[in-house]
Amino acid sequence: MKIIECVPNISEGRDKRIITAVADTLTNHDVKLLDIDPGVDTNRTVITFIGEPKEVITAAYDLIKKASELIDLNKHIGTHARMGATDVCPLIPISNVSMDECITYANDLSKKVSIDLKIPVFLYEKSATNNERRNLANIRSGEFEGMDEKIKRKIWKPDFGPNKIHPTAGAIAIGARNFLIAYNINLNTQDKNIASDIALDIREQGRNKRDKNGKFVRDKNGSPIKNPGLFKNCKAVGWYLDEYNISQISINLTDIEKTPPHIVFEKCRELARDRGVRVTGSEIVGLTPLKTIIQIGKFYLRKQKRSTGIPQKDVIDIAIKSLGLEDLSKFNYKEKIIDFQVAEKSESLINYNISNFLDELSSSSPAPGGGSVSALAGALSASLTSMVANLTIGKKKWEPLYVEMCKVGELSQNLKDQLTLLIDADTDAFNLVLHAYKLPKMTKEDIKARNNAIESAMKNAAIIPYETMKLCCKILNSVKEVALNGNPSSITDAAVAGELALAGARGAALNVEINLIEIKDEKFSVKMKTNISTNIKLALKEIK
């Protein structure tokens, strides 16, 4: 599933009626509201929600529209700089979405806001059309009161919309940006100065340069010259936590791809030891992407020479323990990892225990059926393959195979997860076919719509097992690797994995072929049959 996060900042932090009305627009869309954070002094509210891109874009538009109707910047007073009723609306890629895709979504939203609402839009951060506009502060300079004159200058012509501000809603900045993590590192000292000193070492801005007499070195304009810090995309300060009686390095990581938390954590451990103190743990404030936690877990698994091809929840557990994320409070990963905020289907087959699944399978209901079982066979094969790879790791005589077996384990875990999702997807596809056949056929229009729905549903019902077949065939490469080079004590496990993968591939192929009979699109059917034949032949060749 593709997931993006949207964090619109509206210029109202005091009137609960307006805040609620703006946030309530999200209830009309299939998105999940994560947080509403109003500030009285700033007179600004940060709203955070996530969902699939199309839903997020339409939800963001409705939120911006409602804010423009209810908030009048002419009457707004607050400590935070602002230029619009919705001042800024960033889009952040969370899962299975690239930054380039988010840039496209930001452009789509900007066009709609500028055309339908007559609000001028500036693209910022990764979406910016020039370097000057990457920094939001540059765009917002002059604020609402000075913006109407500012955007008449050619250099500040809006990227979308009119060359004049909306009379009450002002202007807005929309763009794609990286996920920002608020990350704090705990020290076993009450001395705030030690935390502050470490913060000066690690932050991108660094610390003021001093001469041999300890005085600041200044440039010709009298401004202090900085010695840059150790990490790009890192802002940090030191403070004291009265609640826990410790000092803490408080950090904002603005590009976790380039500066991930675990690298900063390890350096802070080193810097703390140099000062006679110790890092006791850390905390993530707010949410974090799953891929970041997985990256952290695998980093420490590699340091421990343990397999990285283990189940996701075990990788997450290693990350939590290694960073000491429960030093101050419980780290509930299902709440703290943003990907898990998208609710799973409560009736999902994959949430059944084995006994319940077998009971459901053996009932008179036609779904789940052969397609779901084929996906299950593939998932079992991938799990066994990962097991053999993991049983080859940890023994001295097989140390040269560590990197290769980690690759096999990781790939097998990935295939297992994909095939697990296809167990439900196949049943869902069958149910869509049943729904299409139940559509009305009273008129010519009804019949045409019903036939189109059936054709579409049948194609989907063929595509799902086709994906299962391809993944099952892909497993066989890894099966061959562990059978030839893995722990010889597990050779029969590798053999069983191969048989299951082949059974899954053949079973899925049968499901594709039976569904092709009902499909009228001959080109589609011929292409599918050719691809099935090619994949199965290659799979059989692989296990010889």
Protein described:
With 544 residues, this protein is α+β, with helices and mostly antiparallel strands. It is 49% helix and 14% strand. It contains 16 helices and 13 strands. It has helices at 16-23, 53-70, 99-117, 136-140, 143-150, 192-202, 261-274, 290-303, 312-323, 333-336, 354-361, 370-391, 402-437, 444-485, 491-516, 522-543; strands at 3-6, 9-10, 31-39, 44-51, 86-95, 121-123, 172-176, 181-187, 207-208, 226-227, 234-241, 246-253, 279-285. Strands 1, 2, 3, 4, 5, 6 and 7 form a seven-stranded mixed β-sheet that branches. A four-stranded antiparallel β-sheet has the order 11-12-8-13. It has a two-stranded antiparallel ribbon with strand order 9-10. It is globular and about 75 Å long. The mean pLDDT is 91.
**Distance from first to last alpha carbon:** 36 Å
Tally the beta strands. Answer: 13
Order of helices and strands: EEHEEHEHEHHEEHEEEEHEHHHHHHHHH
Largest sheet: 7 strands, mixed
Strand content: 5-15%
Average pLDDT, all residues:
91
